[in-house]
Amino acid sequence: MTTRRHVSLPERLADRIGRVLEFLWSGWAGIAAMCLLAAVWQAGHEAYGSFILTSPVETLQAAGALSADPRAWIIAFTTLQRAVTGFALAALLGGGLGIVAGYSPATMRLASPLVTVILGVPPIAWIVLAMIWFGGSDATVRTVILIAALPVVFLGAARGILTRDRGLDRMAQAFGAGPLRRFVSVGLRQTTTTLFPGLALALGTSFKVAVMAELLANAGGIGGALADARTNLDIADALAWVIVSVALLIAVEYTLIYPVKGELDRWRRAAQPWGIKR
Amino acid sequence: MSALNLKGVGHAYLGRTVLDGIDLTISRGEIMALVGPSGCGKSTLAHIAADLVEANAGQIARGYRRHGMIFQEPSLLPWATAEGNIAFSLKLAGVPRRQRAARIAETAERVALLPEDLRKFPVELSGGMKQRVAIARALAVQPDFIYFDEPFTALDVALRRRMQDLVIDTCAGGQLSGLFITHDLQEAARLADRIAVLDSHGRGVLGIRPFPSAPAERTDTTNFEWVQSTLGNDPLFRHIHDVDERQIT
What we know:
Chain A is mainly α. In chain A, 84% of the residues lie in helices and 0% in strands. Chain A has helices at 9-25, 27-48, 56-67, 70-103, 105-120, 123-134, 138-162, 166-174, 179-217, 221-231, 235-264, 266-271. In chain A, helix 3 (56-67) crosses helix 11, helix 4 runs antiparallel to helix 5 (105-120) and helix 6 (123-134) packs across helix 9. Chain B has helices at 42-49, 82-92, 97-110, 115-118, 127-140, 157-171, 185-191, 220-233; strands spanning 4-13, 16-26, 31-35, 57-62, 67-70, 145-149, 177-181, 194-198, 205-210. In chain B, helix 6 links the parallel strand 6 (145-149) and strand 7. Chain B is globular, with a radius of gyration of 18 Å. Chain A: Residues 76-254 form the ABC transmembrane type-1 domain.
């Protein structure tokens, strides 16, 4: 609901380019953290040898070899589509239920104990049940992701609605907005504060649970490749697949979650003093 | 027909009666101040009149075409710029997109908002500027009636005075009618044409007093003298500074 008629197109472009460059520049901190991790990893390698822990360079070489193999791309894509579709299901269902529960205290009272129960059951138990129900298929992985990721999205959406500024609802009503208009233009927008952290957490959970379910359910994908590496005692290959999994998560998070969040949170950046934007 | 006519209006929260038997008529072009002790139901009455809350009893006849409302808190959308916030009310009022920019510019000028202020988010604006945007948002829809729900209570004295001047300038000429909720008699004396006093327990309007001249014609001295003489001599205003914290919810 931001109109920018007084801002010219070059100004808007400059603003957008500035934000992208600032975002890319903030990547230095991430690279520095990765270098620190690699240093600790290298120390572990030198202490225990390649059989226990391969060096970062060897692992990257193994990952490079995987990237040249078309079969590895198919394996990675299988896990990617399972994780993303499972995440999408959890986001839609959890977000929808959370919003309903946020507006309806009775639904919230009924749903809260159920969420506690779902959170209390270990994902491994769901994997066993899903394997019995669906066998080693996509449905098994998606079901386990849905159950594991749904509570955080549900709570994020419900909390956003519950903690919304009711003064804004009243203001919108005073200017003639009906219930649906108030929800779309005022309520929904306020859920983003708590919904986005929930979605980021759910996305990470989706990838972790997808790989775990694939490994235990013998359903192929990166989990299946990790099982093969375990059988062959190939540490470099196992770590390379871990890197692939993390790289996929980062790629999805930074192309799906953060651009939307950055666009919606422009007003928060306006409150931050210059120099500590990120 | 009057701009607003309330007849026998009553309301209760969870079985507790907060308003009962309220009769109030506001003529066209008139600003009516409604005063009373904290917790007597002034804001609830304004919300009922503005159709934000449904009354349990009574009749409400709105003779105006469109109303605007200014709250104690500016209630600006934090994710929209000042311009976006003004556009929000225009969008809700069904003003076509192509007309909105001109309407925003015109209203911003009325309340002395500069083009650079319009690009700022609420978080970048001071309390006074936020309230200025809230006033612009209410005026942009070109209302013929405005509800003022203690709009300047949270502002400091100098800022409050400037905002009151803005209201006096905007309402001068009698194009606007309004209900101004306040607990500050000095503020009522500056802005209103008539002043109504609500019972401490919301049991009806105790009485209404007219001011001798139009708001723009009054001076600080005449306002001060009126408040002093009213508080000292008029029994209608005897209890307006009573406070019962238990009643304030």
